[in-house]
Amino acid sequence: MAMESFYYAFLLLASLSIPLIRSFEPLIRFWKKWPPLFAGILVMMLVFIPWDILFTQHGVWSFNHRYVLGLYLFGLPVEEWLFFVVISYVIVFTYEVFRYFLPRLAFPRLSFWISIVLGLFFVSVGLLNTGRTYTLVVMLLTGFLALLQPVLGTHKKFLSHFYFTYLVMLLPFVLVNGALTGLFSEAPVVSYDDARNLSIRLFTIPVEDSVYLLGMMFITFMVYERLKR
């Protein structure tokens, strides 16, 4: 097996390594939060994995067999399944670190209006692009989830640290997702049909991917915080 076949797997391992090791430190004790974490990840995957499978089958995106191990489940490389687990783990771990070291970080009123503005913006973009499959689905889903936050009152509970974590994680997101979309390699691991998205890229990353990440976080955190409390 060629070394390049480990490319996607190595990215996941590199992303997970430090958060996993630091999970057992006595200050954060993140390992004690694993049950609600993995429950949140499971619920999120129940939404995103079928979506991923369908989009792969219909050519909205595709995977370069050269950079994966060759193990597939329902047409998805096993690395793609692990992507949802690893990225969610890293983000929630980072969130808990911020909650520990920045306990007074709170802007509930601003979080309320951020959710409203983002939700209305995403829904509007989705409805204006009904012919672009990726744009339509990711914008409507994430927009609905954003508008749901004020209804659930999460801005009074955890949304301040949630949005702060999202902003901070955008930098490693660009690095990891850039590596998957060809920023550091001669060919991308994941290729997109630009007829199905806005064709707006951050370096090599479709802008929809940042909204996709936010949607993943919304679902994971809604379950995680509910069960943790």
Structural topology:
Layout: H1 7-22, H2 34-57, E1 61-63, E2 72-73, E3 76-77, H3 78-101, H4 108-127, H5 133-152, H6 159-180, E4 190-192, E5 201-202, E6 205-206, H7 208-228
Antiparallel strand pairs: 1-4, 2-3, 5-6
Helix pairs in contact: 1-3, 2-3, 2-7, 3-6, 3-7, 4-5, 5-7, 6-7
| Number of DSSP-assigned strands | 6
Rg: 18 Å
Spatial sequence of strands, sheet with the most strands? 1-4
- Helices, by number, come to 7
- Give the strand content: 5-15%
Profile the largest sheet. Answer: 2 strands, antiparallel
What are the segments in which pLDDT stays under 50 over at least 5 consecutive residues? none
Sheet/helix structural class: mainly alpha
Number of domains: 1
- Element-level helix/strand string: HHEEEHHHHEEEH
In which range does the helix fraction lie?
A: 55-70%
- C-alpha end-to-end distance: 46 Å
Estimate the mean pLDDT confidence: 96
Q: What general form does the structure show?
A: globular
What does this structure look like?
The protein has 229 residues and is mostly helical. It has one domain. It is built from 7 helices and 6 strands, in the order H-H-E-E-E-H-H-H-H-E-E-E-H. The strands form 3 sheets. A two-stranded antiparallel ribbon has the order 1-4. Strands 2-3 form a two-stranded antiparallel ribbon. It has a two-stranded antiparallel ribbon with strand order 5-6. Helix 3 packs across helix 7 and helix 6 packs across helix 7. It is globular, with a radius of gyration of 18 Å.
